[in-house]
Design a protein that fits this description.
globular, single chain, six-stranded mixed beta sheet, Rossmann fold, 226 residues, alpha/beta, ABC transporter ATP-binding protein, 31% helix
Length: 226
């Protein structure tokens, strides 16, 4: 699967999201930089077929199709859109996601799934109190349970704190499973990733696409091989 956004924007004169071009594809991670409170969310919504851009185009495998995007691309942990309520326990979130995936979703099934993912200790913990890396792993694992999901869009993982190398490695792990992965994060996280010393066995440093504030700017997308 390959998703290509070309010159997409949102809002009058692109104030909500300036013209942006980015692509993400199966078995790869793409990192897009978007600053301000709402631009990461808007970019994520457009990239997953949940919002129509005011300009530009979004193609999946060379064709238009918002319905196909919504079906095949999961939107993960987007502020005020798909992020779980902070006081809900992990077991409650798992049960709900199992239900959406068409699986058994009773408390026992939720606990069994947590056992399978080595997260039973989090069952009664509110999701807001879960460490960033474990939170993101849980939400990514749950998002990929649904039939037909071939890609994920992860928005602002850096807002939870922690070491950005952890969510970058996690994104690459899911790409290694064959998924198309788009991560939308802030400039500070990308700088931290770029400055981190290279170590054997660690994921490659990202080469991000940037959402620029100038209306006329159309940044070229750079895909990062997992």
């Amino acid at each position: 699967m390959r998703v290509v956004l070309t010159d997409v924007s949102k809002g009058r004169d692109g104030i909500a999201l300036p013209q942006t071009s980015v692509a993400f594809a199966s078995c790869r991670v793409t990192l897009a930089i978007a600053e301000t409170e709402q631009r990461p969310t808007i970019l994520g919504l457009i990239a997953s077929g949940r919002m129509r851009p005011d300009t530009g185009s979004v193609l999946i495998d060379g064709h238009k199709g918002a319905a196909a995007l919504r079906r095949r691309v999961a939107l993960v942990d987007v502020p005020d859109v798909s992020d779980p309520a902070p006081n809900v326990t992990v077991a409650g979130i798992v049960a709900e996601e199992l239900m959406f995936a068409g699986r058994r979703s009773d408390p026992l099934a939720a606990l069994r799934w947590l056992d399978e993912t080595d997260a039973r200790d989090l069952a009664r913990v509110p999701i807001a109190d879960v460490a960033p890396a474990r939170r993101l792993r849980l939400l990514l694992e749950l998002a990929t349970l649904r039939d037909g999901v071939e890609g994920v869009v992860l928005v602002s993982p850096d807002r939870h704190g922690g070491d950005p190398r952890e969510w970058w490695a996690l994104a690459q792990e899911f790409a290694d499973r064959g998924l198309a992965v788009l991560v939308v994060a802030g400039e500070a996280s990308v700088m931290a990733l770029a400055e981190a010393p290279s170590q054997p066995g660690r994921p490659a440093r990202p080469r991000p696409s940037r959402v620029r504030p100038r209306r006329a700017a159309v940044p070229s997308s750079r895909r990062v091989r997992a």
